[in-house]
Design goal:
alpha+beta; 22 helices; nine-stranded mixed sheet
């Protein structure tokens, strides 16, 4: 009997030839300049191919997969497929079935890139980027299978074979090739009906007897034990190279921009591989296993298991997910993948000193959004009690914390949850301050008032010291076997905090278009996770006196020095800065990249990536993943785009000459209305200015003829393995001033007061590493402020004590005082009144606005301290 039918690949399939090749130049180039610089490409595992270079499945591979499937049903496996290799020598038995090899009739190929992630640092290991060639999902193969046996047993053997072939019409299909446990290599029939051709051997040779139509009965290789629907409200990105685009700037220059492209499967759906999901599950299960060891005081026990290399002791994680030469008990499938659309997310890295875009750091990431899928889990083999318990623990964790998949998860990409989305909450407004006396600037003795007329100021940086993490954090970072991500602190904390971002002035986070419009996903306006991450990091970098990595670039640039000497009315103390840049007292900000390197407080918390061209640091020590994750915040109030406006943004340069003071730029928050903000922005516009941009700000929809302020966005910040002081730092960054006065500013137009916001409705969920119950809930009286869930005040106090310990508390540290003053709108209003600025007026502090005499006088006061960098406004 000859069975002939076509099967389709339900998932990408890799049947290798045992060979490897190097990445081609085109494949390396497609990863972008950043990846090329790493020179970290490994090898590509190649496919078995036929003489026409088509993906090929050998008959032996198909036969082996069918033999494995036959063990799940009641058939004579040995008669159908022959004896196993171990038994064939002592009990030879010819197989009744012969399976022919087959090449792909149609369908494309994909290159699935993978990397090994260092669990200590959470980043990809250098040199371990590798890939596999796959026949793509949808590839079509023609299967031919011959059953040849004597007449007495012919009918039974054919029935057995048809029973086995029923695997092709089961929901999961037949799996073969690499990564079967992760749902790869699944082949299936579209119909349960197949045509067979029966021949009989007579005196004159083979003769066609009949061509029956056979109906196959489906069966599954594993029963689904758990089905978990997962959904990602925001973007999901699995990288598939970059697209380089060229555009003309307003100045007429041609600039290139790299846009990361998401991997796709057929139908423009996202390529969600079981390997990626399995890796994320395994990483999370490893963390939960360590938590259990910490909480119980009992180390995980290993059990002896048979592997291809003989018996080996394997721990619970290895028995669940597998080990080299041993297939784990867990099998998974990804079903019903869907998406709502695609989106692109522009981003830029800002210089911490000037707040200007760093040259070459403008990029964009394309992504799928609204991605959903069903995660089906089953057992390949009967699990032991410890394996079952670990899987149950993992499923409970996903229900609470979700599962993060793909790239850029610390910036809100790939946050999959078992629940649909965050539920908006009623907005709690802080009590109104009845005192009409506006606050004076608490740092006024440090500023040359009343000449200050510009909307930003500098917060002092101590060049002789850097805020370092606690010893327990440094020890974990420096350890060869612990790490900040892999080993739980005894008093560590994980969890998340849901936050409302409340805006009382117009907002613009540009989408990268020629007309700058607010970013959105589908029809929903959003605050990107990268924006929120940068906002809170800048607060903590100022408070803790973090390192200024670009200080040398700015201070030692010959062009800047030359321009500075020509442009300004007195000679800056550039020689002093030059000497300081190489002196030992600057080492805290520019430490040598060797085995002694340790991160500062913010680097340890937010992560970092160092350019160690000489290779003195291991890749895993020069890179660290953030232990904070910032999800996208979604507009939960009714918002709309304002009318187009033509505005000239006076953008600061990436580097600038500093006088004898180095500081971090802070925009001064002021008490302005949306109308006065627009007046300031329009005062920056020039109808003939070629540098002008057309922008559309986000504002509330009108109610009763007026905009219904405020605008509210709601998002989630996740944290992993923080010390109590680090959690307090996060709470301080969200609430620098606990009574609700402080205002952050984000987006474009901050100099005019746009993007002014505060954090509200904080709902904190804590999961202590030691398994204890979290500290008591927030006091009832604070419900008025929207501060609910587990209390955050004790942790905030610990961070304030840390600031005092390192000499950065607001009462004594100049930089922290400047930070708090810049966040206080009442200070900004008083500052404007002292400077005599009118309602919509916006001025920059330049040598023209100050005057030559004032510049000389300021240079001799407060050690030459200025409110901000002197520069000509573009207007």
């Amino acid at each position: 009997m000859i069975y002939s039918f076509k099967v389709i690949a339900l998932s990408p399939i890799h049947v290798g030839n045992g060979g490897v090749r190097q990445f081609t130049e085109a494949e390396i180039t497609s990863q972008g300049e950043g990846k090329k610089k790493e020179a970290a490409f490994g090898e590509v595992a190649t496919l078995q191919r036929d003489h026409e270079d088509r993906p090929y499945i050998p008959g032996s591979s198909l036969k082996g997969a069918l033999r494995a499937a036959a063990t799940h049903v009641d058939v004579d496996v040995e008669r159908l497929f022959g004896m196993s290799h171990e038994m064939a020598a002592t009990k030879p038995l010819r197989a009744a079935a012969t399976v022919l090899g087959t090449a792909a009739l149609s369908g494309g190929e994909i290159l699935v890139r993978r990397t090994s992630v260092d669990l200590r640092s959470g980043v990809a290991q250098k040199g371990l980027l590798f890939a596999q060639e796959f026949a793509a999902e949808g590839a079509l193969f023609d299967i031919k299978l011959v059953v040849e046996t004597p007449a007495p047993e012919f009918d039974k053997i054919c029935r057995d074979m048809e029973t086995v072939l029923g695997v092709f019409v089961g929901k999961g299909g037949l799996d073969l090739g690499a990564n079967k446990a992760d749902g790869m290599g699944r082949l299936a029939l579209n119909s349960a009906l197949v045509t067979a051709t029966e021949f009989v051997l007579g005196p004159d040779g083979w003769r066609l007897l009949r061509t029956p139509e056979v109906k196959l009965s489906p069966f599954e290789l594993f029963q689904v034990a758990h089905r978990l629907p997962l959904y990602c409200n925001g973007p999901y990105l699995s990288r598939d190279g970059v697209e380089v685009r060229t555009r003309k700037t307003r100045e007429g220059e041609l600039k290139t921009q790299e846009v990361t492209q998401p991997a796709r499967r057929s139908g423009d759906l996202p390529l969600l591989t079981g390997m990626g999901v399995s890796g994320a599950l395994r990483s999370r299960a490893a963390w939960l296993l360590r938590l259990r060891e910490l909480q119980t005081g009992r180390m995980d026990e290993k059990r002896i298991c048979p592997t291809s290399a003989g018996e080996m002791p394997l721990n619970t994680l290895e028995r669940l997910f597998g080990h080299e030469g041993f297939r784990g008990a867990l099998a998974l499938r990804i079903e019903n993948v869907s998406r709502q659309g695609g989106s692109e997310h522009p981003s830029v890295r800002l210089d911490p000193v000037t707040q200007a875009p760093i040259s070459g750091a403008l990029f964009a990431m394309g992504a799928h959004n609204g991605v959903g899928f069903d995660l089906e889990l089953g057992w390949f083999r009967e699990p032991d009690d410890e394996v079952s318990a670990l899987l149950n623990l993992l499923l409970e964790d996903i229900e609470i914390n979700g599962l993060k998949l793909g790239a850029a998860t610390s910036r809100g990409f790939g946050w999959f949850n078992a629940t649909p989305e965050l539920t908006p909450k009623p907005l709690h407004m802080p009590p109104v301050n009845k005192d009409k006396n506006e606050e004076a600037d608490p740092t006024a003795d440090l500023l040359p008032s009343p000449e200050i007329t510009l909307p930003y100021r500098l917060a002092e940086v101590d060049l002789k010291a850097v805020g370092m993490p606690q010893e327990i954090v440094l020890d974990a970072f420096a350890s060869d076997d612990k790490g900040l991500h892999a080993t739980p602190f005894a008093d560590g904390l994980s969890g998340h905090v849901d936050v409302d971002w409340v805006f009382d002035t117009p907002l613009l986070i540009g989408d990268g278009g020629d007309i700058r419009r607010p970013q959105k996903i589908g029809s929903h306006y959003i605050l990107p996770g990268s924006t929120l991450k940068g906002l809170l990091r800048s607060v903590l970098e100022t408070a803790t006196n973090a390192r200024i990595g670009r200080l040398n670039d700015a201070a030692l640039s010959p062009e800047e020095i030359r321009q500075g000497r020509k442009s300004f009315p007195y000679k800056p103390k550039l020689e002093q800065i030059r000497r300081a840049s190489t002196a030992s007292d600057l080492n805290p900000h520019n430490p040598p990249l060797d085995a002694r390197f340790l991160p500062d407080f913010c680097q340890a918390l937010f992560g970092f990536g160092l350019d160690d061209d000489e290779g003195h640091l291991p890749h895993e020590r020069a890179h660290l993943k953030s232990r904070l994750g910032f999800g996208f915040a979604w507009a939960v109030s009714d918002v709309t785009e304002d009318k187009p406006r033509k505005i000239t943004f006076a953008e600061p340069r990436p580097t600038a000459v500093f006088y004898d003071h180095v500081g971090r730029k802070r925009y001064q928050s002021t008490k302005e209305t949306s109308s006065s903000v627009f007046e300031r922005l329009e005062n920056m516009a020039s109808g003939t200015d070629e540098m002008a941009s057309t922008v559309r700000y986000l504002v509330p929809k009108r109610a009763a003829g007026k905009p219904a302020w405020p605008m509210v966005f709601r998002g989630r910040i996740a944290f992993h393995n923080l010390t109590p002081v680090e959690l307090g730092a996060l709470m301080f960054a969200l609430l620098p001033e606990i009574m609700g006065t402080a205002r952050h500013q984000v987006g474009q137009g901050r100099m005019a007061g746009a993007g002014r916001c505060r954090a509200a409705n904080l709902d904190l969920l804590l999961q202590p590493n030691d398994g204890s119950k979290p500290t008591a809930a927030a006091p009832a009286e604070f419900a008025l402020w929207g501060l609910t869930g587990h209390t955050l005040f004790e942790y905030r106090k610990l961070f304030l004590a840390y600031l005092e310990q390192i000499g950065r508390d607001g009462a004594t540290a100049q930089g922290t005082a400047e930070l708090l003053a810049s966040l206080n709108p009442r200070v900004g209003k008083a500052l404007r009144e002292d400077a005599g600025l009118k309602r919509g007026e916006l001025k920059y502090q330049t040598k023209q606005t100050l005057g030559k005499d004032a510049c000389k006088r300021i240079a001799g006061q407060q050690d030459g301290r200025l409110a901000a960098m002197l520069k000509r406004a573009r207007r």
